[in-house]
Design brief:
Elements: H1 3-17, H2 38-43, H3 50-58, H4 63-81, H5 102-105, H6 109-131, E1 153-154, H7 161-172, H8 183-202, E2 205-211, E3 219-225, H9 229-241, E4 244-251, E5 254-259, E6 273-274, E7 297-299, E8 326-328, E9 331-335
Parallel strand pairs: 1-3, 4-6
Antiparallel strand pairs: 2-3, 4-5, 7-9, 8-9
Helix pairs in contact: 4-6, 4-9, 6-7, 6-8, 6-9, 7-8
Length: about 350
C-alpha cells in the first residue's frame, strides 16, 4: 500500500470516528444564514451529517441559535479548563478548524464534558432566543401560568427550557448516527448529552417582582428563568471531576451502562460517564491532538490545579525572564519551560 493511500485511509477513519462532534464547527462558520434560502445556507455550514443537514433545511430559523450554542459551549469549555493540563484545545490555533483532538476519538472524561456542555449550550441558546422572540416556532413557557399559588401570580416570560432541550436532543443527538461510531461510544455520548441538558432543567429558578405601595410587596408576579451559562458550566465541570468510569454490557438483551469498579459510587442519569482513561496531557502528542503544556503560565505558589507541579509546569527564574513574571496578589507566575 503506497503512502498516499495509507494517509487517506487514516484520515478517513479519524473523520468517521469524530463525526459526533464535528457539528461544533458551526461555531467557527462565518457564513450568513439566510432564512429565505435554507438549501444554500445549510450547504455552506460545516460539520453536519445528513440528519443534521435535513434538520437545518427544515428548521433554518433555529440554526443561528444552534451556531451560537456551539460558540457558547466552546467558550465555557475554555473558561472551565484554562488552568488544567487539558485546556479544551479542540481548535487548531493556526487553521481555526475543529481537529482530531484525543477527546473526539476516545471515550475519555474530557469527551464526556464536551458532549455535556455542547448539548447544554444548544439547549440554552435556543431557549434564550425563544424568550426573546427570535424563533417563530416557540415563545415563552405558558404552562407555568396554570399553576396556582396564593402568595404570587405567574406572569412575565418564563424560559421555555423544554423546547430548547427538545431541539438540542433532535439536532445534537443526531451527531451520534455515524456508521463507524462504536455502539459503546454512542451510548456513552447520548448519556452525557442528556446529563448536560438535565443541568438546565433541574436548575431553573423562580424570579419575582414586587407590586405594592412603597415596595410593600403585597403582590408578586413571578416567572421561571434558566441559570446563567457560567453556572451551568461550573455544575458540569463538577460532574467532570466526579465522573464515573464505566463499561457497556449486554443485560436482558439490552446494552447497559455499569461502573467498572464496584468500589466507586453508582452513576445516575445526571452524572457524566466515560469509557477510557485520559492521557496526562503534559507532553505534545500530535497524533492524538494533544498540544502539551509547554509555554503556558502557571502559579508557582499554588498547590491547586493551577500550580506548576500539578499541571506539569517548570517555572523559570533566570535573569532573562524576570520581566516575564507577573506578580498579582503576592502570587508569582512562571512560564512553562520548553
Amino acid at each position: 500500500m503506497n503512502s498516499s493511500l495509507l494517509r487517506f485511509l487514516i484520515f478517513y477513519v479519524l473523520i468517521t470516528e469524530v463525526i459526533s462532534l464535528t457539528w461544533l464547527a458551526l461555531g467557527l462558520s462565518g457564513s450568513r444564514i439566510d432564512r429565505l434560502q435554507p438549501q444554500a445556507s445549510c450547504r455552506h455550514l460545516k460539520g453536519m451529517n445528513r440528519k443534521q443537514m435535513r434538520f437545518c433545511r427544515r428548521n433554518i430559523e433555529q440554526m443561528e441559535s444552534i451556531r451560537a450554542g456551539a460558540q457558547t459551549a466552546y467558550g465555557e469549555c475554555q473558561y472551565q479548563f484554562h488552568k488544567r493540563r487539558w485546556n479544551c484545545s479542540m481548535i487548531d490555533p493556526l487553521t481555526k478548524e475543529v481537529f482530531g483532538d484525543v477527546i473526539l476519538r476516545e471515550g475519555t472524561r474530557e469527551a464526556a464534558f464536551v458532549h455535556a456542555i455542547s448539548a447544554a449550550g444548544v439547549a440554552f441558546r435556543v431557549t434564550r432566543d425563544c424568550s426573546k422572540g427570535l424563533i417563530d416556532k416557540c415563545g415563552c413557557d405558558q404552562s407555568v401560568h396554570r399553576r396556582r399559588d396564593e402568595q404570587f401570580s405567574w406572569s412575565g416570560c418564563s424560559d421555555n427550557v423544554r423546547y430548547g432541550i427538545a431541539v438540542s436532543r433532535e439536532f445534537v443527538d443526531a451527531g451520534e448516527r455515524g456508521r463507524n461510531q462504536s455502539s459503546q461510544r454512542r451510548i456513552m455520548n447520548l448519556h452525557n448529552n442528556n446529563a448536560g441538558r438535565q443541568v438546565l432543567e433541574t436548575n431553573m429558578r423562580k424570579e419575582c417582582k414586587c407590586h405594592g405601595l412603597s415596595g410593600s410587596c403585597d403582590m408578586k408576579t413571578c416567572w421561571e428563568s434558566m441559570p446563567s451559562f457560567r453556572e451551568v458550566g461550573t455544575i458540569i465541570k463538577d460532574k467532570f471531576d466526579g465522573a464515573t468510569e464505566v463499561a457497556i454490557i449486554e443485560e436482558d438483551n439490552k446494552p447497559t451502562i455499569v461502573r467498572k469498579n464496584v468500589q466507586f459510587k453508582r452513576h445516575t442519569k445526571a452524572d457524566l460517564v466515560y469509557l477510557d482513561s485520559s492521557p496526562d496531557y503534559c507532553e505534545p502528542d500530535p497524533a492524538r491532538g494533544v498540544l502539551g503544556t509547554h509555554g503556558r503560565l502557571c502559579n508557582v505558589s499554588s498547590h491547586g490545579i493551577d500550580g506548576c507541579e500539578l499541571v506539569s509546569f517548570l517555572a523559570l527564574f533566570n535573569e532573562d525572564l524576570k520581566n516575564s513574571h507577573s506578580v498579582r496578589n503576592n502570587k508569582i507566575k512562571g512560564i512553562v519551560k520548553s
